[in-house]
Amino acid sequence: MLAGVSGTWAPAGVGVLKLPSGRLVRGRGLRHPLPDGPRPAFAVYLLGKEPPAVPWEARWLRWPDFWLPSDRSAAREVLREAWERAESERVEIACGGGRGRTGTALACLAVLDGVPNSQAVDYVRANYSKHAVETPWQRRFVARFPN
């Protein structure tokens, strides 16, 4: 963890999703400026190519726009790590636009947090972005995500 980077997000922060357990995770689009305020302690970047380096700990999942992660086993591991770390750290999940891939990953975190798979997409759309999870295969990925 970076010096001075501890705690979680403010519940009303830009892009912050509050999971039923109280864990807070920030979703965002990397094509938009970094929001003002504290930096993440840990981030998961969902992109088709490796992202530029950032001054906080980050994981990259190869995940082409509008599709699914290239390695689903790695996706499960990294998303579980993000969910676990969100209990006490500022965790960020981000893709290019902050909707499809980010929404899908946030819905998977909701499943890990106890939201039934069949309700996770609706939960994220109601509490993060109504545009989250853009494709039928992304919805199916959430529906089959192990908890």
Structural overview:
The chain is of the alpha/beta class. It has 4 helices and 5 strands. Helix 1 (72-85) packs across helix 2 and helix 2 runs parallel beside helix 4 (136-143). Residues 1-5 have low confidence and may be disordered. InterPro entries: Prot-tyrosine_phosphatase-like (IPR029021), PTP-SAK (IPR057023).
Question: What characterizes the major β-sheet?
Answer: 5 strands, mixed
Which residue ranges are poorly predicted, with pLDDT under 50 across at least 5 consecutive positions?
A: 1-5
The secondary structure category is alpha/beta
Number of strands: 5
InterPro entries: Prot-tyrosine_phosphatase-like (IPR029021), PTP-SAK (IPR057023)
GO molecular function, one term: phosphatase activity
Organism: Saccharopolyspora thermophila
Pfam families: PTP-SAK (PF22784)
Report a brief summary of the structure.
The chain is an alpha/beta fold. It has one domain: Protein tyrosine phosphatase superfamily (Protein-Tyrosine Phosphatase, Chain A), CATH 3.90.190.10.
Write the layout of secondary structure elements.
Blueprint lengths: L15 E3 L5 E6 L12 E6 L9 E6 L9 H14 L5 E5 L4 H13 L4 H11 L8 H8 L4
Parallel strand pairs: 2-5, 3-4, 3-5
Antiparallel strand pairs: 1-2
Helix pairs in contact: 1-2, 2-3, 2-4
Keywords: Hydrolase
Protein name: Protein-tyrosine phosphatase family protein
Pfam families: PTP-SAK
Defining traits:
147 residues, alpha/beta, Protein-Tyrosine Phosphatase, Chain A
